[in-house]
Design goal:
This protein is an alpha+beta fold and about 425 residues long. About 35% of the residues lie in helices and about 20% in strands. It has 12 helices and 15 strands. The longest helix has about 30 residues. The termini are far apart. The relative contact order is 0.10.
Length: about 425
């Protein structure tokens, strides 16, 4: 028997997501939505049209709103559905997703936010909250909690209200993401200080990046990341729309790595060229993030870690996020998620491979060389300064030295090639 969910977009019913008798997903925009002036597409892969979209295009986008496989399995077990059924998962947890989309049963209006939705979290009890997240990602299965975020890490979307953290019920919009230490993977140590350093460094190097700060419970540090897809407007939290590059390219989230069929650097540049309202600066900004990820040793910059941010239906490259120096963990793969000039291993990347990321002209190659030199010099200088300033402010971690050492090695290697 076919089942249907209403798809709400910017607080308007945009269309319907249907699961047919065979389990295939079908999306169709509603005629009322198509008749409006602001008939913005929910994805560049799902342009506004009367014709419905078949499973091959529908499934990658909507499944991309859900967590990665391991987290998805835990949520599915808690709510009693199959982890391979994105429809049932979105039905249960799709009230507050990335971007401006939410899901409700057919004919049911969206939840209207009220004071009872706010459940303040006692920061003194956050250790208990983080322990609960290991068992119940996003508090799945708890009454009126409908949260979903992509990714493999335990985390929690909350709202910051007058400096206090609050869990929101009923699918009410959130403003921040709590990211505790990655546990269960002994090879990844002190992920919080690692990501903090990389995010702060990216901003110092001139990249648009998600804002973050470190906080501490009685037992551990955690990262508090401000959502760039949420804004306070007139005393209310407003959702801004975003989609990651896997969604934009109709790539299933389980294939997010290039070697598994996921987006390549060239494919990402093509998405920007085709859909961004300012393609030239956004292409340059994307390449700067690619260079930065190489310099900090982030091998996990896959297609779901780059996004388009839609403002009034007009896409731009979103701020960088999920920046982590994976190269300091010897047990993790050294292969980068997207090949640089045809190479997966960083120590096999030379100047000629960077040249392949731009058009084959002398001018473009010189411009790339200039960009590489500036990035290498700025990254190592800013990393050294940041290391000192964090220590002086009382934020100390052994991993800072490891990251700094790796950045110095890669920057010096790159500069020698120029």
């Amino acid at each position: 028997m076919a089942r249907t969910l209403d798809v709400w977009f910017h607080d308007r019913k945009a269309g319907r997501l249907t699961q047919d008798d065979s389990g295939r997903l079908i999306f169709a925009y509603g005629p009322e939505y198509l008749a409006t002036e602001q008939r913005w597409p929910v994805s560049v892969s799902l342009p506004t049209q009367e014709k419905e979209f078949e499973d091959a295009v529908t499934r990658p986008f909507f499944s991309g709103l859900l967590p990665d496989e391991f987290v998805r399995q835990k949520i599915a077990k808690l709510i009693g559905v199959s982890p391979r059924n994105p429809f049932s998962l979105l039905e249960a947890v799709g009230g507050e997703c990335a971007g401006a989309i939410s899901f409700y049963p057919e004919g049911e209006p969206p939840h209207r936010e009220n004071p009872d939705d706010i459940h303040f979290l006692d920061e003194g009890q956050l250790d208990e909250v983080f322990e609960e997240l290991k068992r119940r990602p996003f508090f799945a299965g708890e009454k009126d909690i409908r949260l979903s975020l992509a990714g493999a890490q335990d985390k929690l979307a909350v709202r910051m209200i007058d400096g206090k953290l609050a869990l929101m019920r009923g699918g009410a919009p959130t403003t921040h993401i709590l990211k505790p230490l990655i546990v269960g993977q002994e090879q990844i140590k002190d992920s919080v200080h690692n990501e903090l350093f990389c995010l702060l460094l990216a901003r110092r190097c001139g990249l648009a990046v998600a804002s973050a700060e470190i906080r501490f419970t009685g037992k551990q540090p955690f990262l508090l990341v401000e959502r760039y897809d949420r804004q306070w407007q007139g005393g209310h939290v407003v959702r801004l729309h975003q989609e990651d590059f896997c969604q934009a390219l109709s790539v299933p989230p389980e294939n997010k790595y290039e070697r598994e069929g996921g987006p390549s650097i060239a494919a990402c540049l093509e998405v920007i060229q085709k859909h961004s309202i300012q393609p030239v600066p956004d292409r340059l900004a994307f390449l700067n993030i690619v260079i930065f990820n190489y310099l900090i040793g982030n091998a996990d910059a896959h297609g779901k870690n780059f996004s388009l941010l839609h403002e009034n239906g007009m896409p731009r490259l979103a701020p960088a996020y999920d920046l982590l120096c994976t190269a300091v963990y010897p047990d993790l793969s050294a292969k980068v998620a997207m090949r640089i000039g045809g190479k997966y291993l960083p120590d096999q990347v030379f100047l000629r491979h960077w040249h392949r990321l731009v058009v084959d002209t002398a001018g473009a190659k010189r411009a790339m060389e200039k960009t590489l030199a500036e990035a290498a010099k700025k990254t190592i200088d800013q990393a050294s300064t940041l290391r000192v300033e964090l220590t002086e402010s009382g934020v100390r971690a052994d991993i800072f030295d490891a990251i700094l050492g790796l950045i110095r090695t890669r920057s010096e290697t790159l500069l020698k090639q120029l």
